[in-house]
Amino acid sequence: MWTVVSCLMPSLVVSVFIFGIQTLLITAVSVISCMAVEMVSQKLLGRPVTVRDGSAALTGVLLAFIIPPGVSYLLPVLGAVMAIYIAKHLLGGIGYNIFNPALMGRAFLLATFPVAMTTSWLQPLDGMAVFSHIGTGADTVSAATPLAVMKAQGMAGFIQAFGSGSSLYGSFFLGWRPGCIGETSGLLLVSGGLFLLYKRYITWHIPVSILATIAVLTWIFGGKTLFTGDPLLAVLSGGAILGAIYMATDYVTSPTNKTSQLLYGMGIGALTVLIRLKGGYPEGICYAILLMNPISTVLDGWFKPKRFAPPAGGGQ
Amino acid sequence: MNSLLTFPKGGVHPPESKDLTATLVIERMPVPDELEIILGQHIGAPCAPTVKKRESVIEGARIGEVAKGLGVPLHAPVAGLIKDIGMSAHPLRVKVPSITIATDHTAVSVSFDPHPWQRLSAEELLAKVHDAGIIGIGGAGFPSHVKLKPPADAAVDTLLLNGAECEPYITADHRQMLEHPQEIIEGAKIILKILGITTCRIGIENNKPDAIAAMDKAAREASSQGCSISVETLRIKYPQGSEKQLIQALTGRKVPSMSLPSAVGVVVHNVATARAIYEAVALNKPFCEKVVTISGGGIARPANLLVKIGTRVSDIVRHLGGIKSEVVKVVMGGPMMGFAVSSLDVPVTKTTSSVLFLTEREIDNRPHSQCIRCGWCLDACPMGLEPKEIGVYVEADRAEDTAQFGVFDCFECGSCAYICPAKRPLVQFVRLAKMRAKR
User: Fold this and answer.
1) What is the pLDDT of residues B73-84, one digit of tens each?
2) pLDDT at position A142, please?
3) What ipTM describes this predicted complex?
4) Torsions phi, psi of A165, nearest 5?
5) What is the pTM of this model?
């Protein structure tokens, strides 16, 4: 788990240069809260305390990564209680929780603090002014996320706000755009993901099937007419990469069989595009993963590993 | 490297740790003052003693016989006095019936000289294998004469000799292949004659190039004499030496669940068993001693020892200069499939391939935690089973419902437990499940 945490650290460092030093503070508050809540809930429930295994810390980092950079420090604390105490320990316990804890934390915050969670975006900084947001009201420099602009103002407004062509993809890939703390830098998130692949902590099945499904479905249905959507933009925005590589691959809440994993990924991708294009929210992957989480064990029940050799003359 | 033979699905790569003993010549251990010979040495029926207390026996005399069922006779490894017919400590079954012999050090040791065996019929050869008390030395301990008489409807065309020795630490087969290749090949020829076939293929893992060369030379010299014996190099991957995996690697055939290798026309024996068969047939020597690897960071002097069956581990320890204070676990058998013992009074049996004295650095003693459904065990299992589900079901007290996950196809190689990040004792869960599950 600590390896996954370290894979996310480059994205955290870059977020400081994009949005300012408070991203580091929010992440620290989130990690400390998650670890504290883990310790307290395990003590309360009379279970062995496993806070050192790094999974609570990972939840803390992921939770911070999917909230806007301009929120109050109270939010990650409340999110941690929801994520660790309720979603992880009450809804199953270690190894048996149904839903991804960090995403449950975000869903809870989105429902309880809808304004803060959808407006506390920050415009990327110019230069190295990482302390510029400290002490100022965050709303004075607020911005809107790319998908929200797209949803509200259409493609024309989007191009006006973010530009177009290769400079647009470039800045999105590097992370210089408004968004949640850790979701913006596709480059660093993918690099970390490649490291996890190399170390065999994850396999390609879930991330690739999610991102491919999002790209293909957005290409078909995302434009004014069929087959005119922008698949690259769809993958680079709205936390798709963060969700696909680091959240949907959570062992406990995802399927174990490779076929199930591909179907699970496709389901997440399809639900993400459905929510983005037809639903009320501009971003969709959070709810898409939460909706597919409980289906993973069902999928594993359908697809079993291939046995070495069945008994002679059939049977079993 | 891709041309090396292997099985396709699953497997793990534990540290080999064979350097400790791979270069050490097999050394005969002096006979200790006492031997404890367990009456149930192998799968099948235990022996009933055919000697009485305070009776004296000569070396090689029969001291136990199987009354009924699957089994082989038991012999006195040394000349001496039957000191006791009682109970012994056993790594698995705690206490088991045994015969204790007090060694007569003054007795002249019997010498075994080669006799020509080529004139003997297949039945006579088979009887010699049975009478010498030979069982599968590789570890499972299946009586060898039974394997040599496959069902009449099985069209056996190939003999496979297993020289993979994929368990970490163990080098007993390695040294025997290196030091006695002709005897193993001669054993293979005897087995071929018993089975009435002419093809033998020997699989050896790539980490024993000297053994491969020695065996290949011996096999080439023998192959001109009406049979074809070849040595094949196997990729290093655990459990390459598992019977079904070895058959698949060497022949591409898959033995169906609940079937014997003869169902796909194959008979498999360990290389050390082939050597024991040579000694039984050509030297008329009963199976009373075997090469055992004594290794691990906790033994003063690691060795490949030729010991008498019934030698206590404590006597071996004394012979090798004692154990170091860092020892935290003593394992009989390999680290993957062996058993930890709680006492050094346990004797070596016919299936003991090694005794390991492991230190803190060599084992993982961390407590296990809940399954996090990472699925690594699914990828590691060479049989395509679901170890994680078996573990969860056993913990939930539903062991009887685990047949659906293939618990009866599990041969307990331990790949799942080795790879498990939560350190779950999956093999122990499987053993429990096998006891309770409904077929």
Assistant:
1) 999 999 999 999
2) 62
3) 0.86
4) 70, -155
5) 0.88
Average pLDDT, chain B: 92
The reply to whether residue B375 touches residue A48, judged by beta carbons under 8 angstroms, is no
**Percent helix, strand, coil in chain A (nearest 5)?**
65, 0, 35
Question: Which range, A102-106, A119-123, A177-181, B68-72, is most confident?
Answer: A102-106
Residues whose CB falls within 8 Å of the CB of residue A225, separated by 6 or more in sequence, listed in order: none
Interface test with A, best of B13, B374, B402 (most A CBs within 10 A): B374
Contact predicate B35/B28, CB 8 Å: no
Whether residue A309 lies within 8 A of chain B, CB to CB, comes out as yes
DSSP 8-state secondary structure symbol assigned to residue A88: I
| Cα–Cα distance, B348 to B11 (Å, whole number) | 29
Q: Which 3 state secondary structure label does DSSP give B19? A: coil
**Inside any domain, residue A196:** yes
CB atoms within 10 A of CB B233: 16
Say if CB A89 and CB A41 are below 8 A apart: yes
Return the SS3 of B95.
strand
A243 assigned to some structural domain? yes
Residue of chain A nearest B439, judged by CA positions: A316
Are B375 and A256 a contacting pair at CB < 8 A? yes
Q: Is A274 inside a domain boundary? A: yes
How does DSSP classify residue B330? E
Return the SS3 of A152. Answer: helix
Q: Which domain holds residue A188?
A: 183-302
* Cross-chain residue pair A307–B370, CB shorter than 8 Å: no
Among chain A residues, the shortest Cα distance to B263 is held by A312
Does the pLDDT value for residue A311 go beyond 80?
no
Chain B contact for A95 (CB, 8 A cutoff): yes
Lowest model confidence (mean pLDDT) among A140-144, A164-168, B102-106, B230-234: A140-144
Asked if B276 and B161 count as a contact pair (C-beta separation under 8 A), the reply is no
Angle between helix A101-112 and A55-65 (nearest 10): 40
pLDDT tier for residue B67 given thresholds of 50, 70 and 90: confident
Specify whether the CB–CB gap between B386 and B410 falls below 8 A: no
Flag whether residue A4 sits within 8 Å of chain B, measured between CB atoms: no
Domain count, chain A: 1
Contacts of B244 in chain A (CB under 8 A): 308-309
Chain B contact set for A206 (CB, 8 A)? none
Return the axis-axis angle of helices B426-436 and B387-395, rounded to nearest 10°. Answer: 70
pLDDT at position A58, please?
96
> Residue B200 pLDDT > 70, yes or no?
yes
pLDDT at A132: 65
Please check whether residue A177 lies inside any domain of the structure: no
CB contact under 8 A, B256 and A312: yes
Judging by DSSP bridges, how do beta strands B303-308 and B27-28 pair with one another? Answer: parallel
Residue B428 tokens read as 């122990």
Half-sphere exposure of B141 (CA within 13 A, CB side): 16
Which of A94, A308, A316 comes nearest B383 by C-beta? A308
**Would you say domain B122-282 falls under CATH 3.40.50.11540?**
yes
Give every CB contact of residue B140 below 8 A, 6+ residues apart in sequence: B43, B243, B351
Domain ranges of chain B: 122-282, 376-436
| Phi-psi sector, B414: left (phi>0), alpha (psi -120 to 50), beta | left
